[in-house]
């Protein structure tokens, strides 16, 4: 007879004693279990003790998390969180430097546990740490020269403990003094500072800016872009990542009227070229966190265009009308203005109307009306003027080429520019907030100070070229725009490293090539509708689905590293989950860093039997997506979230690194539960494999005899003189 579900068999350690094997009744109060353990080792005052995991996490067992204890778990009897917090609170104030250093090291480690953190914070521990940072550095200033390593370690552990404690969200960021902010900022502003101190200081500043409007203003007064730039010119990618994160936070929280000013300062300090040289083109791979921060910076930079994109043109504004006059002047180099008489005024209006028609505006009489739709608003006119001034020859050629064609084949430059600007804004998602987990940055946008305008200039020339290749008329306008969008999207997916490379990718994606690609894809995805083919597909489908199922389960056996996301800030904290080879148990556990390759089962302490899984839920149905916090609002994170529900009110929560891994895991878990695999990836794989299998079976093999046995291996040649020795 199997043991009751509420009984868990564990091992419990106590320093200096043999470990005990014990059965824990989960219905009993935790205090009663601890008393029973203490009585077994004749330890008095059981209220001063607690149980914690004996693995690297050392997390305390509480009434809230006790259901996570599984059969075979190794626990440790230790001092209670309250006692531990009290002792550490006293130890970190020791007059002995060595004792103080050791205490701060322990505090930095224990602060990751929310139970201990709550107790330490209740003792006003955060205030003590901030006072140590504010005043302690001066106190040990004299000792710094002779005890520099000790001083650096002490400050590093203090800041680490502070970051870990604040990450639990127990204390508001608004409570910190200007003196503390100034001190943290001073560590960032120093040219020579310990790497670990600099990293934690940057992390604290980022969190301050993101979590408090008042602190944003104070941090913005203490930190300048010029002081952050040198950290990007170093070789430590982690420091570079945190530095860009601080810049992004300042950018994100800046008032609308300050953002353009910040962008101008970034341009003056040549931030873009520094990132291009020292980060993107550095001789090392860009990790996921850095890719995310570059993506955020790219999004925030393009979002500066939103104001112009949503601004309608005022037909009465002379300055705005002058831009249209300038476009006309550059294109046609107007002759000297006729005298201001009644007759010549009529001639002028007639000439303007004719020229505006050649420029491709919809409203020939008053082209300002073409820019009253938002988006793209005034941004389209800005792009047109930039193209006319900075690529004048190409601009004049396009306008004159189309003005000399028959009306039905002319490519309207004005209308094309407006629609193209709108399309490019949609592709780059101008005006949308950056995704929490996305790292889709494009290196080419970091190669030019006016990258969006240059992007437009390349695409408008592409549009004109595609129009000619399609021999399009005005009725084909939307078809041309669809082809151009496909050309741009396909070129972007190759992640060109420069605008020139992007241009050359587009050269290879002519209209003819797009037609070939479309035809090829159509053939690959073609559904044969004849009855025999449908019957064949129906017969083959179970076999293909079983193949997909095995692939999914094999991927779960390999396992995946998941990032722990926090609503307050992104963290480099990871955990790994994998399925046992017999498909009966999920092994999982925390990791110190992102692994290289697979993580062995024995290094993952936690287990979840597949038989205990009740359901798999996704998106908004996940418990961790129902909690309060910024992640709840993020659509992208919702699409990557899934949870395993087991036992009573227990769950294992996931946020997949990308959509592909999300599909793999949800498919695999559903397959384990005997449910259908419903992901987009499964549908695509099924379509591809079915199509391939049917085409193989329909190959024309008439008069081709397929042997029953493989052909014999020929005898070795008598000599090898025919071999050419290239040496």
Task: Write a brief caption for the model.
The protein contains 31 helices and 11 strands. With 727 residues, the chain is α+β, with helices and mostly antiparallel strands.
Could you outline the blueprint of secondary structure elements for this entry?
Elements: E1 7-13, E2 20-25, H1 30-40, E3 49-53, E4 74-79, H2 81-91, H3 97-110, H4 114-122, H5 125-139, H6 141-144, H7 148-167, H8 178-189, H9 195-211, H10 213-222, H11 225-232, H12 237-253, H13 256-268, H14 271-280, H15 288-302, H16 306-309, H17 318-332, H18 342-358, H19 378-390, H20 392-403, H21 413-427, H22 451-470, H23 477-493, H24 499-508, H25 511-524, H26 531-558, E5 560-563, E6 574-579, E7 585-591, E8 606-609, E9 613-618, H27 623-626, H28 630-633, H29 635-640, E10 641-646, E11 650-655, H30 659-672, H31 680-697
Parallel strand pairs: 1-4
Antiparallel strand pairs: 1-2, 3-4, 5-6, 6-7, 7-8, 9-10, 10-11
Helix pairs in contact: 2-4, 3-7, 5-7, 5-8, 7-9, 8-9, 8-10, 9-10, 9-12, 11-12, 12-15, 17-19, 19-20, 19-21, 19-22, 21-22, 21-23, 22-23, 22-24, 26-30, 26-31
Keywords: Apoptosis, Cytoplasm, Membrane, Phagocytosis, Phosphoprotein, SH3-binding
Organism: Daubentonia madagascariensis (Aye-aye)
Subcellular location: Cytoplasm; Membrane
